[in-house]
Amino acid sequence: MSAMLLAQEPLIRGTVFTVCLLAMMLWEVAARRRPQRMDRRHRWPGNLSIVALDTLVVRLVFPLSAVGAALVAAEGGWGLFNMVDAPIWLALIASVVVLDMAIYLQHRLFHAVPWLWRLHRMHHADLECDVTTGLRFHPLEILISMVIKLAVITLLGASAMAVLIFEVLLNATSMFNHGNVRLPVGVDRHLRLVVVTPDMHRVHHSIVREETDSNFGFNLPWWDRLFGTYRDQPAAGHLGMTIGIESFRESRDLRLGRMLLQPFVTPDRDGK
């Protein structure tokens, strides 16, 4: 069963990724939340190229996937849930929740530490926020994130199934909550009690620093409320807010080559 799960992981993740990406693209056409001043043809080539590059880099540097790391930990008896006799369902749910909290804390770390912010700011430098923004991360950030993820999986002793569920959820919700899609106000208000919605996460992509440093959650919305980083709405409203960061406002900054160089050029915000 474990070997089969490991073998099927790329197919499962690839299928869910493709379905979610296409569904969000269609939703953005059918029910757009904000008009986009920067056309997709200027943004999408770089954003989609970076996710392809990230996938290649991770596969080359980490031949053993996160699911594979969970299997290795299980075989060696490493980690909390490989040492305690907990019900399978409880260990699975707890693992997904703890992994999500770890991603929240990691996200805050990438905003707080200057050299990590240099890597992460490429994600924020997109001049619009849509489904492809949720895929736009610098390869060096992806590699560091993978190291942190593998460490948490090993310490936690998360099962391969729990890790696969978490990976699929994280990828799908990242595309969802970055989507330029419109939800009825009442639906959004209730939905953001259980999952990060597009209106909730869009605040995080505001050019206003106080708003950029809020709403860090990708999947579960509880951590922002628990740790005091929740902001309900942007001050200028979703139609009036400016997306991006001050340092990179030109269309040329959306090209793949310039995106990859962003961590190594002029810093912004308080010398970071």
TrEMBL record:
Q: Which GO terms describe its molecular function?
A: oxidoreductase activity
What is the protein name stated in its UniProt record?
Answer: Sterol desaturase family protein
Q: Which residues form a coiled coil?
A: none
**Per the UniProt entry, what species is this protein from, by scientific name?**
Halomonas aquatica
Q: Spell out the InterPro entries in the cross-references.
A: Fatty_acid_hydroxylase, Sterol_Desaturase_Related
Catalytic activity, EC: 1.-.-.-
**Sequence ranges assigned to domain Fatty acid hydroxylase in this UniProt record:** 94-229
**Coarse class of the protein's main subcellular location:** membrane
Sorted alphabetically, which Pfam families does this protein's record hold?
Answer: FA_hydroxylase
